[in-house]
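Internal QA ticket QA-208
Title: Verify multi-chain structure generation after dependency bump
Assignee: T.L.

Test input:
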Amino acid sequence: MKKKISKAVMMRLPRYYRYLSEMDTTERETVSSHQLSVAMGFTASQIRQDLNNFGDFGVQGLGYNIEYLREQIAKALGMDRTNNMVLVGYGNVGNAIINYPGFANKGFRFKAIFDIDFSKIGKDIYGIPIYHVEKLNDYVERNNINIIVLTVPKTVVKDVVKNLKIKRKIGIWNFASIDLKLKDNYVVENVHLSDSLMRLSYRLWGKNGK
Amino acid sequence: MKKKISKAVMMRLPRYYRYLSEMDTTERETVSSHQLSVAMGFTASQIRQDLNNFGDFGVQGLGYNIEYLREQIAKALGMDRTNNMVLVGYGNVGNAIINYPGFANKGFRFKAIFDIDFSKIGKDIYGIPIYHVEKLNDYVERNNINIIVLTVPKTVVKDVVKNLKIKRKIGIWNFASIDLKLKDNYVVENVHLSDSLMRLSYRLWGKNGK
DNA sequence: TAGATTGTTAATCGATTAACAATC
DNA sequence: TAGATTGTTAATCGATTAACAATC
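Actual output:
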């Protein structure tokens, strides 16, 4: 049965994708919900519910074809395509993201970097050119960019965002610890590092334990 | 009324903390659940439920005292203390974390860095010394370290973790896209950057749109 | 006192688990 | 056919929303 993917299931899909990607398909081609449950720490029941939530992938008595299931999840996540990205703010975080392995092989490609520092502008990093940030909007419009990665300091984010006049659907992957409020065609995904650290703190010392 | 903080509420606490920290308390000292709901994008009803979930902070007719509420949330998150941290793996991600602003002022302090690269070992970064990773376990035991930040490549994580023999409760903030399975005294918080990027992809192109 | 806003109960909604019939 | 394992329904659990009495 096919219905809308629920939010809880969507949040878990990247994890399924990761585990399935790491499975060795040379020995066995299928995996059962029980095997997955042991590896991933979900209940087998939840896994069957989840997968049934958006497609018919299993075969009774056999389980799920690992490779096929991985492909279907990739499709559901919209990862059966290339995403052209630009990075804004070539500081320490920007540098870490540009060098992060495992984006390119999932179809996420950096096309350009933007900064305000003239000592950086004009250079290129692994063939990715660095331009002045004032050229950002123009570049995004003309080069079919799908995702803008924001690694500028918190204080600058609003200025950068203010100058964006994109009309089509576009993703913003934001690393500043600020929640952006933008028009609906901007799809904002935040990475709040300090939120993550606070949750760790809670689990270590929080008033109600775990 | 005071009960155990539910998981959903705990996940939202860092966000409350962030918004309350950014509020200007020179003009007004209190904030109502309605005002918070507009700023944060939760319903006012949920905010009252959340805050009542772990304490009695509000005053009928007035709202919540911003400063006091922030302090109480910090306490609930276990942030009314200093955490001593070490970083393992001084690469691009490690460098980004060491330079990330806003950890120190929340009581998270880096005491040492560990790596295997002899061209780095012996140096120091802003006064934080870099040691060989074989000294990690010993250092953590002797220097009252609460949190180990793992910014080593995915392939090395298991080796690093294998050599840890800590018996007391300790946090692991893991940046490798691998789910660690450790003894119960290790509290593992993962930062899965590629999961976040996949969720952005879903919201842009996913099969069921948003 | 009157107005504002919380604290709290009840209703609704969504997510997870349990169980088993369907079927490979 | 017998065994394994999914798909799916029903039961349970938890989280959110709505409503309003309590109270500052």
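Spot checks passed. The helical segments of chain B are 7-22, 33-40, 44-52, 66-76, 92-99, 136-142, 154-162, 193-205.
Status: verified.
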